[in-house]
Specification:
With 287 residues, the chain is of the alpha/beta class. The protein has 10 helices and 9 strands. The strands form 2 sheets. The chain has a 6-stranded mixed beta sheet with strand order 1-2-3-4-6-9, sandwiched between helices. α1 runs parallel beside α3 and α3 packs antiparallel against α9.
Length: 287
């Protein structure tokens, strides 16, 4: 994409991604199993770096994204959510006006978008092997991949509305190429969970496999099959497919970043986070 802020700089945190190579296939594992691969700032820092390296590596012809632990990803880490719009500089004279908060929020949302878009923009085909929970940001990541396989225990949810948010990292822009509008509206408006079988019927995933191991094996097998073809032709096919939807996706990402810049820090969001920690249903006021 052409209108992006730089992704967050990598920090001193332990790596949350692990890469394995087998022939021309690289497998990138989300590797924060103790947190069910919740996406914090280290994830958003590392992902574009890893994808850029694989994208420029001539020995890599296909990439599989999978996850260690019991879940693919439960989405954005609440600590990362709380930091959006905040000024982390040591300057005590931080501008706390609503306008300044909106500017910081917009810049940070665009930066997070760029991290997920690094997957879609990778010149090599990217396949997702999904198991367990795939919620919120997990769906953003999966929708940025070219092909999605999942295990029978996979559960998908575009859950942001249940957290008083509008999904802003790519699901609402990329899923229209995968599922019919009515299905997407149902997922986005209700925030409901759907199982693997329904996800396959909707077109969200290409195939359902019995378990995590078989989903990963099937994704790697398909990646190996892709790698047997001319890399120039395969990457050309991906570039042509991407160009057909590029303008619409970019416009959608810009729009939602601007929307959330002015509305993300709402009373409803604070209520959603409070209710989550208090383990009770939220009561939304619409403000």
């Amino acid at each position: 994409m052409t209108d992006r802020s730089a992704p967050p700089e990598p920090g001193p945190d332990p790596s949350v991604l692990a890469v394995e190579r087998d022939g021309h296939t690289a497998t990138v594992f989300l590797d924060r199993p103790e947190k069910r691969n919740a996406m914090g700032m280290p994830f958003f820092s590392e992902l574009p770096v890893v994808m850029a390296k694989l994208g420029s590596d001539d020995q890599t012809r296909a990439v599989v994204i999978a996850a260690n632990g019991p879940a693919f990803s439960v989405g954005l880490d609440l600590a990362a959510l709380a930091s959006i719009g905040q000024d982390e500089s040591p300057d005590s004279g931080t501008d706390t006006s609503q306008a300044a908060l909106a500017r910081r929020t917009h810049a940070q949302v665009v930066a997070l978008q760029s991290s997920i878009s690094a997957v879609a923009d990778c010149p090599k085909p990217v396949l997702a092997a999904i198991h367990g929970w795939c919620i919120g940001g997990g769906v953003d990541l999966a929708s940025a991949c070219d092909i999605r396989l999942c295990s029978a225990d996979a559960v998908f949810s575009v859950r942001e509305t249940r957290m008083a948010m509008v999904a802003d990292l790519g699901s609402l822009q990329r899923l229209p190429d995968l599922v019919a509008y009515g299905y997407l509206a149902e997922l986005a408006f209700t925030g409901k969970d759907i199982d693997a079988d329904r996800a396959e019927k909707m077109g969200l995933v290409n195939k359902v496999l019995p378990d995590r191991e078989s989903a990963l094996a099937a994704a790697r097998q398909m990646a190996a099959e892709i790698s047997e073809n001319s890399p120039l032709a395969v990457q050309g096919a991906k570039a042509v497919l991407a160009e057909a939807r590029r303008a619409r996706v970019e416009a959608g990402l810009r729009f939602v970043a601007a929307w959330n810049a002015g509305r993300l820090h709402s009373d409803d969001l604070r209520e959603a986070v409070t209710a989550f920690f208090e383990r009770r249903p939220p009561t939304f006021s619409g403000s």
